[in-house]
Amino acid sequence: MTEHTTTVLIADGEGHRTLQLTQAETLDLVDQNPSFWVFSDNQMVKRESLAEADFSTIDTVCIVPALVGG
Q1: Sign of CA dihedral 56, 23, 2, 9
Q2: Domain covering 6-65 in this structure, CATH number
Q3: Where are the beta strands (DSSP E) in 1-70?
Q4: DSSP 41
Q5: Phi then psi dihedrals of residue 29, to 5 deg
Q6: Which of 23, 38, 39, 56 is close enough to 62 for a disulfide, judged by CB 3.0 to 4.6 Å?
């Protein structure tokens, strides 16, 4: 049986990438980018809640640099 994968979009200084990752791979990528914002199906989420989420119901996770205003 294959593990469910989710589309993960990550934006960084080199542009953006679209990946198909498992929940463990997604969480690892989130951990590698601690200052980035995380969105699950266009809703900003806390990293901790993403770890507890049912990934079979998530279509897309976006990992983007945090915006700084002022």
Answers
A1: positive
A2: 3.10.20
A3: 6-12, 15-21, 36-40, 43-44, 60-65
A4: T
A5: -65, -40
A6: 39
